[in-house]
Fold these 3 entries.
Entry 1:
Amino acid sequence: MTSWRQPLPLLFVLPFIGLIMWLNIKMTRFCDSCGKMTVCQNILNPFKFCPKCGTEYDSKHKNEEG
Ligand SMILES: [Zn+2]
């Protein structure tokens, strides 16, 4: 009756897990100044500054690109 034993759901579950892990990595920031780890809750409006010391996260990239 049921088809839960088929491997087809894995084709959806594995990419989903990979996506979640990728988002966790993308939304986790480490402060260069104080080393505080910050996990952003809203991917559309990510943190730009460290909530602990106020250092801007992407300040290095701005210097490289001019
Ligand atoms: Zn900091």
Entry 2:
Amino acid sequence: MRLRHLIAVLLLSASACSAGHEHTVARPRGRATAARHTGPAVPATPAPPSPRHMVFHGARDSGMVALTFDADMTPGMWRSLDAGRIKSSYDRRIIGTLDATHTPATIFATGMWIRRYPAVTKTLAADPLLEFANHSYEHSAFTAPCYGLPVLPAHDRTEDVRHAARILRDHVPAPTPYFRFPGGCHDQGAVRAVLAAGVTPVQWDVISGDAFGHDPHAITRTVLKEAKGGSIVVMHLNGAPTAPETHAALPGIITGLRARGLRLVKVSELLAAQSASRP
Ligand SMILES: [Zn+2]
């Protein structure tokens, strides 16, 4: 997958979030005590829980799983859309399946994706099954190296998160205060930079493999094999070429997880259950 990912990044100037690299980045131990809530609060009604530390999954005894879809957009992807090399970077079939099966989900959207698809964003934001979160402005990396993505200077990281948050607030009535690192790449300084913007980094514990995955059955099998109570599953909303088979894998994922008695929820509900379980 790593090789395929690298080739695709080089060819398309695109990017993806789930290249199986979680093991290559440092996880902060415990709470990031150096962070301060210095940025403007992200309005949300009601306010979902926003832990002051990085999140990889929810409570294991919750019986819940959160399906998440990253809406990537880089300047290179934008140019490919303009030039007609990519027809669309929004696979509406994914939302069609979520709606048809009454499945909640969380969309981590880049600011550039929202700017490209403002009407779609408005429609999705009005769907009670869906909630929105922040995936940076233009999907630049918060640490280097990160799969060939351009890297933000360290002093620009907090402002990038705030920039994307402003675009979110302009298009989504009640965005969640969650953020996902482009490419998943982070270190403790990057985590502090995100927390300083008033949002919580939310990663995943299940990589679906939908990024450049061309076998929908393999994607479905991977998720059903690895997901358990509390899991956060990362997938993509972009469709081909970055995530060509997500739409085809999704029905089996939803059916299979529910058959195991797991309840599919938004990230905010998963984390609310986690907060409630704490003393
Ligand atoms: Zn991404």
Entry 3:
Amino acid sequence: MRITKFMVSVVMVLTLGVITASAFTKTVTIKVEGMKCAKCSGSVSKALKATEGVEDVQVSHDKGEAVIKYDDAKLDETKLREVINKTGFKAVENPTQ
Ligand SMILES: [Cu+2]
């Protein structure tokens, strides 16, 4: 009985640790309007990568979207949309969020 309780608390501590560690990196997919070729997606990608807190960026003009991995403590989605809009393309609001 004692061992079972101990095991439960160990598992809980481990789970909490994993949740806390992953809370800092978030991945978001933002729809981007107006990208026609690799040069377009390249400039969006470049602007995002130059933003502090962005860890990884995959921009596709085919799909018209940017998949961004970022540090939750330094950035939020609103800021990422602003960066995209400043490149001259349009970050589309996701109606489900
Ligand atoms: Cu282009």
